[in-house]
């Protein structure tokens, strides 16, 4: 029985999602409406990724009948995005008025593309497709690298990161599934090639995070790895396999072996923020998003393998997530991080984590009996 899994999905649909919809939308100084950075909201500085992640979540939830956020989506789309992007629709890091905030990063564009895919799916309006084309064209002009993948931002620093390329891969799969357009299909194939040629370390059998020019993992920070991203890539590679027909099991199996062997905090059992390439802990704190990505990898195991223990692991991880991060919270929807000893942080709940929770909940929902999935 997936009792805790059902509780997690119900909490997401009945508590977390409505709460951010009703309490997590604020008015800016000019009266426009946008999504808040956190609950409770304590800062006027808001990252643009919050806008695009919330747009994605609430467009998908509306389209799939979980709730109706149409009015809020319309208000945010009407004027609320203006502080977060330039006249061409390219997103800044945040709405703050400084040089770093005005940075136009690959990461922000990836989430804009993801949000636009779901807005297009919800409405069928061509403006969302046109915006996606403009952002993708801008990325290819200003961020694309000769060696494959994309630079961190328009300044093209020598430091390279797998993370924005991973989320662009996610957006490309979404657009490809939605439209069948060769633009998105070819980009998805290119990013998969980047993964297996450069991001995945064949010798260590793990995912590298940071690179020097040419995707060389020989920087000091190249030794720091994210177990959560191992789980996230596991799920994304399964999505890619489903649409592309490419067998990604060898990479997924390796990613799971590494993450399970080295990525879990021995005290709490939660997925740690970062580890060293030799498998030792680097940042033994455990953010909530890392746990949601493990759930998504668990769902893949349940759907694809004959491992009879996979549903039991999923149930245990759902129970663990609720116990560590949700149960007992009142002033905020969830705790975003526990320390190395399993104690909760006191920080507000970042709105950006809702996207991770939502996608995980919708994946877990696939395994629930239809009478249980509300």
TrEMBL record:
List the GO biological process terms. Answer: carbohydrate metabolic process
UniProt cross-references to InterPro entries, sorted A to Z: 6-hairpin_glycosidase_sf, 6hp_glycosidase-like_sf, AGE/CE
What residue ranges are annotated as transmembrane?
A: none
Q: Which GO terms describe its molecular function?
A: isomerase activity
Q: Does the keyword rRNA-binding apply?
A: no
- Keywords on record: Isomerase
Q: Which family does it belong to?
A: Belongs to the N-acylglucosamine 2-epimerase family.
| Protein name (Swiss-Prot/TrEMBL) | Mannose-6-phosphate isomerase
């Amino acid at each position: 029985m997936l009792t805790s899994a059902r509780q997690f999905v119900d909490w997401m649909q009945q508590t977390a999602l409505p709460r951010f919809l009703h309490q997590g939308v604020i008015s800016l100084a000019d009266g426009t409406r946008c999504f808040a950075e956190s609950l409770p909201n304590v800062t006027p500085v808001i990252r643009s990724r919050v806008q695009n992640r919330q747009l994605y979540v609430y467009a998908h939830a509306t389209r799939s009948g979980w709730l109706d956020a149409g009015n809020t989506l319309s208000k945010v789309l009407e004027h609320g995005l203006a502080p977060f992007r330039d006249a061409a629709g390219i997103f800044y890091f945040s709405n703050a008025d400084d040089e770093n905030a005005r940075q136009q990063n690959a990461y922000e564009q990836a989430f804009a593309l993801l949000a636009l895919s779901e807005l297009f799916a919800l409405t069928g309006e061509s403006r969302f497709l046109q915006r996606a084309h403009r952002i993708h064209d801008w990325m290819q002009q200003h961020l694309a690298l000769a060696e494959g993948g994309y630079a961190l931002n328009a300044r093209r620093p020598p430091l390279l990161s797998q993370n924005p390329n991973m989320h662009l891969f996610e957006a490309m799969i979404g657009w490809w599934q939605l439209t069948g357009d060769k633009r998105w299909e070819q980009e998805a194939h290119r990013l998969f090639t980047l993964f297996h040629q450069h991001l995945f370390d064949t010798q260590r059998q793990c995912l590298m995070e940071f690179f020097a020019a040419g995707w060389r993992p020989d920087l000091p920070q190249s030794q720091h790895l994210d177990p959560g991203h191992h789980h996230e890539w596991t799920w994304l590679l399964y999505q890619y396999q489903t649409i592309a027909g490419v067998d990604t099991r060898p990479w997924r199996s390796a990613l799971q072996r590494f993450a399970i062997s080295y990525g879990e905090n021995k005290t709490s059992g939660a997925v740690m923020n970062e580890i060293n390439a030799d498998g030792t802990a680097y940042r033994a704190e455990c953010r909530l998003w890392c746990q949601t990505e493990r759930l998504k990898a668990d769902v893949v195991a349940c759907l694809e393998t004959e491992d009879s223990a996979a549903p039991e692991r999923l149930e245990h991880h759902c129970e663990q997530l609720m116990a560590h991060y949700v149960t007992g919270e009142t002033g905020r929807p969830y705790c975003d991080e526990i320390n190395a000893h399993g104690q909760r942080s006191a920080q507000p709940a970042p709105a950006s984590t809702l996207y991770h929770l939502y996608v995980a909940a919708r994946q877990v929902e696939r395994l629930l009996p239809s009478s249980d999935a509300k």
